[in-house]
Amino acid sequence: MTAGWTITPERAAGLRSGVRAEVRAALAGLPRADLAAWLATPDGEGVLRTVFEQMPARYTGGITDGPQTARWEVERTRADTIAYDLVLGEDTCDVRERAISSAPAVTLTLDAVSFVEMASAAAQGMDLLFAGRLHIQGDVRLAMRMESLFGLAAPGEPT
Fold first, then answer.
1. Nearest by Cα to 149 from 77, 78, 74, 72
2. C-alpha to C-alpha distance for 120 and 152, rounded to whole angstroms
3. C-alpha dihedral (151, 125, 86, 33), degrees to nearest 10
4. What pTM did the predictor assign?
5. What integer pLDDT is reported at residue 62 of this predicted model?
6. Distances (CA, A) of 75 to 31, 58, 83, 135, 155
């Protein structure tokens, strides 16, 4: 199976769009293995990095007890892990490449497909956690707030 067979140019454009509804439409019916393989390519890596670049604009705010760092580690099949630290404040979200020397309040680790599903509201974090596809280390309360901090609706709801 090759990613090129199911990742058509139209599907790839939907995944690149950054519009949650378009990303969900591109995910519909796409085999996980094909998407995982594509996310390991330079094009797929670009999509993952774009999600992180968009996070400040999607941040709804609400961290009132001082800045908190949430580290996201997105594991890709046969490719390097993509990792970013999000420094979350009351009204700001600063996205940085992972800082080896800093200790985050929480680390969220998941595979690239699950990350795209969560970021587009095609899957909820709690479902990914129970399925063993999302792993949390550190401040679980902060981890449980991630979806609301970025305005993610339940699957099927408009975003």
1. 72
2. 8
3. -110
4. 0.88
5. 83
6. 17, 23, 9, 11, 23
Q: Over the stretch 8-30, which tens digit does the pLDDT of each residue have?
A: 999 999 999 988 899 999 999 89
CA distances to 15, 44, 56, 116, 154 from 1, in Å: 20, 17, 36, 21, 31
What are residue 136's DSSP bridge partners?
Answer: 108
Q: How far is it, in rounded angstroms, from Cα 72 to Cα 31?
A: 24
Write the DSSP assignment of 107-144 as a string of letters: EEEEEHHHHHHHHTTSS-HHHHHHTTSEEEEE-HHHHH
pLDDT digits (tens, 9 = 90+) for 74-127: 999 889 999 999 999 999 999 998 877 678 999 999 999 999 999 999 999 999
Q: Cα 38 from chain centroid? A: 15
DSSP one-letter code for 41: S
Report yes or no: 62 and 149 within 8 Å, Cβ to Cβ.
yes
Strands 68-76 and 106-111: parallel
Q: Both tokens of residue 125?
A: 């974090």
Query: Helices marked H in the chain — which ranges?
Result: 3-6, 9-16, 20-27, 32-39, 42-58, 112-119, 125-130, 140-149
